C-alpha cells in the first residue's frame, strides 16, 4: 500500500495533502514550519525526509526538515550565509534539490549551498562566479527590478554530479562536475529585450527534464514555451497554439517525453489565467499542438495565478497532476489532466507544490 | 543579569526557550551570543550578515532603540521586538 503526499509550500507555512494510490480522497495536515513563508518543499526519496526552504521577514532564511513525513520539524541555517565582508546577503532560500547523499538549496543573492548531513549544516557550493552575467547579478546597481536568485535546480537522477541551475533573469546553466564548473544552456531561446551577452540574458521561469528521456527538456520562459532535444544545448520555441506566451509553471509527463503541461497566464500585471477560466494546457506531441484541459476546473470568475513551483506530476502509471494557486486552491487530476477535482481551498497563497509516492 | 524579553515568533523554534531570560552580558551582541550558547541557531534568527540586526528585529535597552554593540548595565531590560512586517 502506498501513500501519496502532496507537499504544499505557502505564504504561511507548509501543508501536506495525503491520499492513497487511488488519489480520490485527501486529508490536509498543517500548517507546519511555524507559519514561515515556504518557497519550496520537496521529498528526498533517498532518505525519506521532507525539506522546506523558508524565509521569515523577521528571522531570516532557513531550511526546515522533517524525518517523519511532516509530523515533526526542525530548522537550520547553519552555514547558509555569505561571509560578513562579502557584501552579498542571503535574503531568501528559493529552491531545493535532493541528489544522492546531499541536499542543495538555491538562494538569493544567487548562490547554491549544500548539506551532506541531512540539512543540519550547510556550506557554500558555488555562486557561479565568473560565468557570463555574474558581474551583473553581483552588482546591485545593474540588477533588473526585483530580486535575483537561483530559482530552479533540476537534477539528473542518474548522475548526482550533473544538474542545471536557473538564475532569474539571466538563464540556465549546466554542470557535470557537481557544481565546480558551469556552461550556459540558452541557445535558441527567445528574448524581447537587449542583452550585453549572447549566451545569457534570458528569463527562464521553469525548467523541467523528462524522466523518460534525459535529453528532452522543456521550459516555460518569460516569453514562450521551449523544448530541447539535446539536453539543453539548443532550444526551439513551441508556443504556437497557446493563448499566451507567458506563465510560470511547467511539468513533464513521467512516462512520455512528448507530453508536457503548462499554465499560460496573462503577461501583464495580472498574471492570472486568461478570461477567468482555469485551464491547464497539454501537448502530447512535444509542442506541435496543444489542448486545453478544463473538465473539473472553475470556468467562471477564476482569476487564478500559479507560480513557478506551483505544478507537479507524480510517478504513478496513470500520472497525477497537482496545481496550487496563489489564492490557496489545490487542483488534482489522476488521469493525466483529462479531468480535475479541487482537493484543497482556503490555504494561504501557494508558492510550491511537489508530490511523493511512498510505501507505507 | 540583564532581563531579556524575546518575541513570540522566536520561542517556538527552540525547545525550552521562554519569553523572559536572565543573561549575564555586557553588550547586546554578548547577550545574544550567550543565548546562542544555550540554544544553538538562535543568533542566526536575530543577526544577519555584517553582523547586523535583521531588518525587522528591533532591540531596545532600557526603552532606548539599540544596536548590537550597545552596552548593558547589570540590571538592564532588553526588549527584542519582531517589528511590524508581513500580514
Detailed description of the structure:
- The complex is a heterodimer of chains A (about 350) and B (about 90).
- By secondary structure, chain A is an all-beta fold.
- Chain A has one helix at about 135; strands at about 1-10, 15-20, 25-30, 40-45, 50-55, 60-65, 75, 90-100, 100-110, 110-115, 125, 150-155, 165, 170-175, 185, 205-210, 215-220, 225-230, 235, 245-250, 260-265, 280-285, 290-295, 310-315, 320-325, 330-335, 340-345, 350-360.
- The longest helix of chain A is centred in the middle third of the chain and has 4 residues, at about 135.
- The mean pLDDT of chain A is about 95.
- With about 90 residues, chain B is α+β, with helices and mostly antiparallel strands.
- Chain B has a single domain (about 1-80), classed as Ubiquitin-like (UB roll).
- Chain B contains two helices and seven strands, in the order ββααβββββ.
- In chain B, the strands form two sheets. Chain B has a five-stranded mixed β-sheet with strand order 2-1-7-5-6, with helices on one face.
- At the A-B interface, loops of A face α2 of B.
Task: Chart the SSEs and their pairings.
The complex is a heterodimer of chains A (360) and B (87).
Chain A: E1 2-10, E2 13-20, E3 27-32, E4 38-44, E5 49-56, E6 60-66, E7 74-76, E8 92-99, E9 102-108, E10 111-115, E11 123-126, H1 134-137, E12 150-155, E13 163-167, E14 171-175, E15 183-184, E16 204-209, E17 217-221, E18 224-228, E19 236-237, E20 247-252, E21 260-264, E22 280-283, E23 291-293, E24 311-313, E25 321-324, E26 330-333, E27 341-344, E28 350-359
Antiparallel strand pairs in A: 1-2, 1-28, 2-3, 4-5, 5-6, 6-7, 8-9, 9-10, 10-11, 12-13, 13-14, 14-15, 16-17, 17-18, 18-19, 20-21, 21-22, 22-23, 24-25, 25-26, 26-27
Chain B: E1 2-5, E2 20-23, H1 28-38, H2 42-46, E3 47-48, E4 52-53, E5 57-61, E6 64-66, E7 77-82
Parallel strand pairs in B: 1-7
Antiparallel strand pairs in B: 1-2, 3-4, 5-6, 5-7
